[in-house]
Amino acid sequence: MGSNFKAEVRSIQLALKGSHWATAQAVRVVLEEYERLIGVSRLRDTQRRVSLQILYSSRAIDSLLKHVVNEDASRSNRRVPAPSLGNYIDYIEGNGVYGRDFPPQLIISLRIDVKDKRNTYLHQAGMFPSDVELKRFLSVTLDGINEIAKIPRP
Amino acid sequence: MNQPAHGERSLGQEKKRVLTRVAAELTRLHVEDYQVDPALPDILVQPDLLVVPRLGSLATVTVARIPEPSKEWPFTLEIIEGLFELKLASGPDTVASILLLDSGNADFREQDAFQLLGRLFDLTYVLPVRAPINQIRDFVAQLVSSSAREGFRYLWDIERSVRQRNLSFIESRPYVRRLLDEFGQSTRQEYSSPSSVSIEELRNRVEQRLYQILDLSYTIREQPRILNIKRHFLDVGEHYYFTFDFLLQNHLSSIVQVIRGSPKTYGGQQRLRELAIQATFVRYRSLGERLRLKPRWQSLNLVIDGDLLGPEHSPKRYLRLLIAAGWNPIQLSELSMETLDLEGRWYG
User: Fold this and answer.
1) With 70 as the cut, is the pLDDT of residue B345 above it?
2) Chain B within 8 Å of A146 (Cβ-Cβ)?
């Protein structure tokens, strides 16, 4: 994980702190997860490092989407979906957040490059992502978090 | 951007010195957080500083040197494209500031270009050479207390959906998909080198080719002047126009612009960003206080002699910038009825 990735993570952390979600508990959790993510980047055991990177960034996007989806559902009197990353992505694809659609390409990437890969690498023993898959995973989770951070105040 | 005269500090050194002083002031004020040289997603030219003055508030600082007189408009258009990217990538609530370093071109502050920056950025500040500390403090105080202009929120929203639609619309064209796929192949190091002919000769060749491929229902106009929206932001009576290379007219009309070179050549990236904002500025019209999308406007074809390959980690970045802005990119050797976009655009 190069210095540019660390700069990207740091920028997303600032974007979240500067967003109107900043005071939510879920955002504090996401910021902490990304501190852990940066912390493991120097681990020499590659399998342990990539597993933890997938774990921390999955938990970050999962927690943030849960908060955002629950808040949007309660504001708009919609049913809160059962807790799962796939359900949160489906909800956002169908309803947007505060009436704001996510880019279709990002929805597709969240499903294929994050949800499916997470299911593979966190739920199946002995499976580890390639470098390309890992980079894509981390990059799409950051894009997803940034998309939420930039939603304007309702 | 500007080349420093002999004995002057380079822009990089000057920026670093100013950013160090601004950062020191942010630390003194105990702002929530800040980052020098941020890396926000989907921005080609990053701002120089990202600041969280307090939780729930985000600001950016872009530092630039005031250009010499002959480069005022290209400089301004490129900076404004950066502003559009920033607002779309970080949200309309982000306070976008520009800190202009004085270069001795005192007239710039009287120009329409400067006024345009002042109208569009949330904060525009001119800093003299060797600015005293109280001026740095004044800038930072204004930065941390500024808020994003409410009046342009609708513009960022419209532009966000237009650029999103442009990407899906233009990328759906088989020719553009093929071009994007080729750019995505790691084996492709270079699309093609620009030919050695002059730009005038290149335009002549493109014109001849257009006469060959278009039927008689089309009229080809050279150097068309297309109304843009600069006037909407300025206190001036005159209209502003962009001049493109060709306008193809039958019941619809299409712009054709010819460029040569690549993002790697000096000034290449600036030219692409200038083209992106030109495409944006011709699709709106002024309606009272607000801008509205024209119900129908010209499709924009960009004939490229050279390559648009981005860096290895992001080979499609320039192509996507131009496509999002509304350009239909065509490699010179592939100019044909199949690759030209002659349909116009409708957004209702």
Assistant:
1) no
2) yes
